[in-house]
Design a protein that fits this description.
Layout: H1 23-64, H2 68-85, E1 92-96, H3 103-110, H4 123-131, E2 136-144, E3 148-155, E4 158-164, E5 167-172, E6 177-178, E7 191-193, H5 197-208, H6 212-215, E8 218-224, E9 228-233, E10 238-240, H7 246-260, E11 267-271, E12 277-282, E13 290-294
Parallel strand pairs: 1-3, 4-7, 7-8, 10-11
Antiparallel strand pairs: 2-3, 4-5, 5-6, 8-9, 9-10, 11-12, 12-13
Helix pairs in contact: 3-4
């Protein structure tokens, strides 16, 4: 590999002054050194001016001839090639936090093949590409020279399936849709239905999860008039929840079931909207048959 700049450390021995040196000779050497210093200072001042003038001249020529973009691209690519030849190229990609994002998506988002020039990667633009991926919520891209690219991503966590017009889409823990997700792989998640169900599902499920044994029975949840929920259990019993204090109502149901096993009875629904009682609708020929549990 050819170096762009050669650096040499030159060490000289101190010169021993001869007794034959005269005052005239010393004066002559001093005058010569003075002329050299003036010449060096003149060159030091004029060289940057010459380079600046040349750069301005090339820039004006490129602008007048319409070749500015072409010249910029050429110079940029030349710089990338030179730094890559010096070893600044992608040789190792380290990624943390990947569970759902595919390797192919990662490679496409990086935008550089193995061995590509490291300095051609714009971390800000790469971050945008990663955060545009379906599963990625946030991303941080760092270059560790000479050849390591470090990527930290935070992915969305699947929470529920939102049913709309007989189609299912995956919802994350923020209530946002995860586009193009393979919903069949998440059929074990609860289904939420209705207007506003996707956005409000995180709050509902967070309340239901406070009673783990009862939460295991949850099959789906229906958003009613975008105000409250009706939960469907795995044995098809409907649990009518109030608009507010959902966690408290769910806790009352869990306590009542632990004590009296009411969810094992032949009932159609459990109404928890009243704070001082639980209303059970029995499965009988008469749909008016109602059992009321007070002070539960």
């Amino acid at each position: 590999m050819r170096r762009l700049i050669e650096v040499f450390d030159v060490k000289t021995k101190p010169k021993i002054q001869s007794h034959e040196d005269t005052a005239a000779a010393r004066a002559k050497r001093k005058q010569s050194a003075s002329r050299k210093l003036v010449a060096f200072r003149t060159a030091a001042v004029s060289l940057p001016a010459i380079l600046l003038g040349t750069a301005i001249g090339v820039g004006i020529w490129a602008w007048q001839t319409g070749r500015m973009d072409a010249q910029k691209y050429y110079l940029t690519q030349s710089l990338y090639s030179a730094t890559s030849a010096l070893g600044l190229k992608v040789e190792n990609v380290q990624i943390n936090g990947r569970n759902y994002t595919s390797v192919e998506e990662v490679v496409a988002a990086v935008g550089l093949a193995n061995g590509g020039p490291m300095l051609s990667l714009d971390p800000h633009e790469a971050q945008k590409r990663f955060e545009a991926l379906p599963w990625v919520k946030s991303a941080t891209i760092r270059r560790q020279l000479p050849g390591t690219l470090k990527i930290d991503i935070k992915e969305r966590e699947p929470l529920a399936l939102w049913q709309k017009d007989y189609r299912h889409t995956l919802v994350d823990q923020s209530g946002d849709i995860i586009p193009d997700a393979p919903v069949r792989s998440y059929s074990h998640l609860p289904i939420v239905v209705g207007e506003g169900a996707a956005k409000t599902a995180p709050q509902l499920l967070a309340s239901l999860e406070q009673q783990p044994e009862l939460y295991q029975k949850v099959k789906s949840a229906i958003r009613v008039s975008n105000r409250r929920w009706t939960v469907v259990l795995d044995n098809e019993i409907l649990v009518v929840l109030p608009e507010e204090a959902v966690a408290e109502a769910w806790h009352r149901l869990a306590k009542l079931h632990n004590n009296e096993k009411i969810l094992d009875r032949a009932i159609k629904s459990v109404d928890l909207r009243l704070p001082d009682r639980v209303v059970l609708r029995l499965i009988e020929e008469s749909s008016d048959s109602v059992e009321i549990e007070k002070n539960t």
